[in-house]
Specification:
- There is one protein chain.
- With about 90 residues, the chain is an all-beta fold.
- It has a single domain (about 5-90), classed as Sandwich (Immunoglobulin-like).
- Helices cover about 0% and strands about 60% of the residues.
- The chain has strands at about 5-10, 15-25, 25-35, 40-45, 50-55, 60-65, 75-80, 85-90.
- The strands form two sheets. Strands 1-8-5-6 form a four-stranded antiparallel β-sheet, with no helix packed on it. The chain has a four-stranded antiparallel β-sheet with strand order 2-3-4-7, with no helix packed on it.
- The protein is elongated.
- The termini are close together.
- The model has no long low-confidence stretch (mean pLDDT about 95).
């Protein structure tokens, strides 16, 4: 992989939230939800390259499936820790 778009969130993981980040051809939709369990979520897309979603939290590094350009890779994992990094790796 040649690059990444990453965002780190720290603080209270109590209420649901979501954010979107864009850089060049990459889009990252990431957040935290409490629908069934406390969960970190990451959805990654790149319009010009293969890519995958990645979450680093208190339980380690979690990688979503590699996807071709223009499609979404996703990763959803049980929340852990007070710092979480969400990435689109391409």
């Amino acid at each position: 992989m040649a690059g990444s778009l990453s965002r780190t969130y720290s603080g209270q993981f109590v209420n649901d939230w979501s954010k979107t980040a864009k850089y060049g051809n990459a889009t990252l939709e990431y957040g935290f939800n409490t629908f069934l369990i406390k969960e970190d979520t990451c959805y990654a897309n790149h319009s010009g390259a293969n890519h995958y979603a990645k979450i680093r939290n208190g339980n380690g590094v979690h990688v979503g499936p590699s996807k071709p350009a223009g499609t979404w890779s996703n990763q959803e994992v049980t929340h852990s820790g007070s710092y979480v990094t969400y990435s689109c790796e391409y």
